[in-house]
Amino acid sequence: MEEVRFLKAEDLFELKSVTDPQVSPEGERCVFVQTEMNEEKNEYFSHLHYLELNENKQAHQWTFGDTRNHSPRWSPDGTKIAFVSNREEKEQIYVLDTSGGEARRITSCPNGAKRPIWSPDSKSIAFSVSLKPSESIIADDKEEKEPEPIVVDKMKYKSDNRGFWDGRYEQVAIFELETSKVRIVTSGETDYRLESWSPDGKWLVISGNPVEEQDFSFISDILLLNIETREVHNITNQEGYFNEAIFSPDGKYLGFVGHKREYQNATLSKLWVYHLETKALTCMTDELDMMVGDAVVGDFQQGAHVPGILWGADSESYYFLASENGNTVLYYGTVHGEIYPALLDQQHIYGMSLHPLSQQIVVAISRPTLPGELFLLEVTTGKLVQLTRTNESLLKQVPLSKPEMIQFPSSDGLSVNGWLMKPAGFQEDEKYPLILEIHGGPHAMYANTYLHEFQTLAAKGYVVLYVNPRGSHGYGQEFVNMVRGDYGQGDYEDIMAAVNFAVTTFDFIDDEKLGVTGGSYGGFMTNWIVGHTDRFKAAVTQRSISNWVSFYGVSDIGYYFTEWQIKADMNDVNTLWKHSPLAYSKNVTTPLLILHSEKDYRCPIEQAEQLYITLKRQGKETRMIRFPDSNHELSRSGKPKFRIQRLEHIMAWFEEYLK
């Protein structure tokens, strides 16, 4: 019998992430991606794994080595797998014969290649590539150039994901397997995202924003590209933000996800179906007040992706995912308007792949005590069978805390939902310190999913409280829009109401030992809280916003995000400052730990620096931890050792002030 112990931060090195299941065309096989962190090399390694769906067998590993292999896609004839790998430094596309043998590299792009999509005849692969207008798609093996000054003429010149813009645009190319010929099928000074290939092989669906002035345009159109003539038809006509477009099997319909930006980035995504013959565009979820897609906040899965729509074999039925009430729900619908839940449970579905004829779906599911595994759903019977047990060995050694769902009224009567997680080894007659966690976004959602940070804190003896305040997804359009223009007001009341509810409802909470932490928007709210109450004895703010005035000009999304969320710009500095936690620094009495990444372009580190220096100058108790070569995604996909050290800093701070 294996010894039982409590979870540790470094158990991240033992856990494996299972994502991106892809069912074979005949429906009997499945390939997926398994990712783990390597402690010695301080890197992530991802490999393709293979399953026989109707046999009770373990998965087999298909790729090996100290590399990342991902985005597997079956050829329509079922004989090959295309995937992306960095085995030769830059990510390129490879093709693996399912009968065996070595994978063949098919691209040699100077800046890498990604997102492979097969032609219906299995003879060609479309993919995405990043190029300058005059740059060749074939690498010339020239030596790296010396760094040069960056000339900036546009406002969208950097991003947290890609760094500083280098003059390249995302384009679409096609590789022919028989001839090894490659051709670029898009052009121009805009980014195009490859979506899907039509069943007749004549069209590609791409998405993009084909306008000259893009600094003030926040559109993503669905575009039909004729492969031979390069003729482009715009389906959505600059009406909103749309993507994840997929043809029905008969080519009659095109389904996709998006919205018309009625509430800017707080708008709920909806499911749309376009009839290619009649050119009628219909919103299938218009009457449903729910967010289509996966809006869940997590800190564990690597490379998870949920397709916008999965078409049935009849080309009239389909499946899609929606975020509701702290869960992601699998829905069944038809082009005639029927919509019913197909898998409704306390769960986070973060991946899915359908075999249209058998109506079997491989779903990737996580729950608070299940980091994530693959399951086979038989839609017609509702039978759900677990396919993988990737983390079973560790979970037998380490009991996880199962949170209790809570619901309570805010100060204005608004109903708010959340969870309370008891500490590991909980004893009824003991008192425990509580840590309040606040998610980022703010338009995101805590859910019934595995959260390593929360489980690690519970294992250290803390009660963990986490809620979805106004501004969160999962509770309708009015709820998610409430926070805009109201930062630090109603959302603050919701969060403090959660604390009040917890300490008055659960007598095992020591209300003299309360801590608070959060990242991004959650970091903003942590900063706001310590400037407006002395109730918390310790706080940790992560990748936070402290000053909306400077954030406006330094963040990669600053000028438009601030206008959308705070509803003010640099012509109204008073409003920006009123909503800035830095303005209330003199009120701070809570010891505050400040965690920030050096290369965070979303919430640049100057936000942390301003806060740290201001508090330090005023004699407040504070400390700043800076993570080099890290961006806004440190807690989710940063360097493995930094992720562990981040958790250790958080726990040490709370240990010092709450224990």
UniProtKB/TrEMBL annotation:
Give the UniProt record's GO annotations in the biological process aspect. proteolysis
- Signal peptide from the UniProt entry: none
Q: Does the keyword Hydrolase apply?
A: yes
Domain (Peptidase S9 prolyl oligopeptidase catalytic) ranges: 452-659
> Molecular function (GO) terms listed?
aminopeptidase activity; serine-type endopeptidase activity
Q: Per UniProt, which keywords does this protein have?
A: Aminopeptidase, Hydrolase, Protease, Serine protease
InterPro entries associated with the record: 6-blade_b-propeller_TolB-like, AB_hydrolase_fold, Peptidase_S9_cat, WD40
Entry's family note:
Belongs to the peptidase S9C family.
Question: What is the designated name of this protein?
Answer: Dipeptidyl aminopeptidase/acylaminoacyl peptidase
Q: Which organism is it from?
A: Mesobacillus persicus
The upper taxonomy is: Bacteria, Bacillati, Bacillota, Bacilli, Bacillales
